[in-house]
Fold each of these.
Amino acid sequence: MTTTVLDNIGILVTNSAEIGQGPLGVIENASVVHEDGVVVSVGPSGQVADERVDAEGMCVIPGFVDSHTHLVFAGDRAAEFTSRMAGRPYDGGGIRVTTEATRAASTDQLVAATSTRIAEARAAGITTVEIKSGYGLNVDDEARILDVAGRFTPETTFMGAHLVPSEFAGRTDDYVDLVCGRMLDEAAPNARWIDAFCETGAFDADQSRAVLEAGRAKGLGLRLHGNQLGHGPGVALAVAMGCASVDHCTFMTDADIEALAASDTVATYLPATDFSTRQPYPDARRAIDAGVKVAIATNCNPGSSYTTSMSLCIALAVRDMNMTIEEAIRAATVGGAAALRRTDVGMISTGKRADMLVLAAPSYHHLVYRPGVPLIDRTITTPML
Ligand code: NIG
């Protein structure tokens, strides 16, 4: 097996307080030796290996862990976005538009489109990605989307409970029965997680709970969309059910924050969604100071957040959600790993996956200081599967 050293790193962010300084576990003038996709040693510059890659004094950080995307879809919703920028509010109804386009696409077309988006995400520094279904909304198409997602990542999420499809209009409980029954049976072999959109206009707390319970009975891990468009029962339900993550959290009461702080559920913020839907940004400071574990994800999808830029999400979290730069970088790396219950990614230390980003910048501050500039010079990773 060949060993490779990433040498001459000016600032190395390890996210490990055991080997580095401060909240990001920083080591200056460092090098990282890796072999077969795994870190075998972190030390001063000049470690020796079979091959040498020169970081030229730049900053190296762990690969981004994007714990919330809907990457398998067809079509786009630029017209909906444009009308939103002219003042029309976002209500999630456009999910049905994407569902129609996705049902009409062949599997080969979905694979090709997803492959393009994965390449874009990787170039933007995402080395671990979760992908949800939710644009099929029937038995065959949900299963098909999860089959496609599973070709790219082990972090696949069944989200038949994304919205009630038109053919079930006025019969939400019947649709929930289908999701918990035949749809779940077909989806489960290709899914690691189950999710539901617990929001006014989508699924209420009882319906969302039924979906999560059915998923748990099938051995799936639990996640939930909650508190995106207004206050609601999502966060409390996610905590009560022991979800790994509750995602959006744009509107949270003090009770929601207290419940999260006392739990293992990660609050996953999706700042590019608040940007793209003209929602208010949540105050992450309030949650972090209360002890809530947080992550940041892109939520890449054609409706509410059509971006693979974790750097944009980090900049928004700092600029508009009151996170420090260090907190935002942790949330996009080791925070995302916690939201996926992964301990092998999000850090650079011995035994972890060798997922590393060489920045075209001397320090990680530049990710926020130079917004919109593509600073991911090189993504070092092995295939996710
Ligand atoms: O997480 N909120 C629900 N699902 C997606 C939006 C999907 C869409 O609008 O197509 C989200 O924002």
Amino acid sequence: MSDQQRPGDRADAFVFTPRKNGQSQSVSDELATWMSTGWADTELRDLDPIEQAPHTARRRAVLSAAFPGERLVVPAGQLVTRSNDTEYPFRAATDYVYLSGDTADGGCLVLTPDADGGHEALLYLKPRSDRENGEFWLGQYGELWTGRRNSLQEASVLFGVPTADVRTLPEDLRAGTATLRVVRGHDEEVDALVDEVRGDTGTEARAKSARLDEELRVELDDHRLVKDEWEVAQLQRAVDATVRGFNDVVAALPQAQDTSERFVEGTFFLRARVEGNDVGYGTIAASGANATTLHWTRNDGPVREGDLLLLDAGVETTTLYTADVTRTMPVSGTFTELQRKVYDLVYAAQEAGIAAVAPGRSFGDFHKASQRVLAEGLVEWGLLEGPVERVLELGLQRRYTLHGTGHMLGLDVHDCAAARQEAHLYGELEPGMVLTVEPGLYFQPDDLTVPEELRGTGARIEDDVLVTGEGRTVMSAGLPRSSAEVEAWLAERLPHP
Ligand code: GLY
Ligand code: MN
Ligand code: MN
């Protein structure tokens, strides 16, 4: 612990902070002394670098070139309390993972300008727990409780970046003179530290700093728009695992009818976990009228024969790339005439959307193509008054289509949301971009503008699509899409009585 330590420094935060349950109060000197000795040296394991190390190095070089002479601070984020002394499962900040490959909590990547006009990267990390001062078994983040961390030397080999003890981050940042930018919003302590070092007092200075930080965020989201080969392979792994999860859910549908939508959610999650993965967002398992609630994650409703089940779920790999897939299926195995009519219109809209995904097409095209098909159908059914051009111009179809037709996909499920509009929303698709195409129709149960028999019906079909040099690849093509294919899938996999 350095002499320069100040209240609030992270040196306080994880070195010998007694566990919150107060166990440290009852430790005898004899036990404390005994616990500090008799341990083998386990500081260094023989580790190989992570396979994405060349990619993270290239990404850091691109970032370096964008901000010559400036110091860039990219934190991983901290654990967040769930209740009392338990924490939410940790998920590292996307830009930190993208630039370092590390997925642990509490770290911070800093790119410092060097004499050659580039930057030196230094990865500040929590070191191993100190056994001599008792931190390893009495401290809040002691390894005896939370598990062995990489030693700084090991981490340096793993990530291909020099490492430092994160307790030295405050004094290192305070000692620098270069303009600072931070990826804000992930680690309050780091944000406060950067603010302190900048010494912004006035409103104008603070506004300027906020702009600097926002520019860094935008730049990083721009970089992440086009995926490299390694990232595409990770996304394909996530999608393939997701396909297996959907197949599991179909086989378990009859049991879900005995409990609730949570059986569906749990079945999908089981597949994610047994393969060593996680989910990239809260699974939406929405049966019947719940399918008309876009972010239905309570998943506590019944699954009934005769309902449509909308399942929107995605496996996230250990490298934190996520799939995002939706299928809508009749619980009984067969669509009713009305359900098929709704589903087939959504399917036609998705077909039109997928066909509009190609290099050089504008990002908005697939959305427009899908919305046109939906608007045409809604006018034909008499739900909207034509002509279709007027409906589209005024956006009237959105009462029933509700959301945009897709988004970028990657480390974040809604990836690259901060990217420059001219590169993203008003930009052109490029090979290596991955996006979802996910039109839907939602007739709310209390919507008096639709015929009674349609109320409470919702359907969405969502696939993950890679833009290629020639056109597109539907990465989630392992799952059926048309109503006939969905019924055949259910007939094959639903257990027969
Ligand atoms: N799962 C959220 C979405 O489809 O955008
Ligand atoms: Mn989704
Ligand atoms: Mn989506």
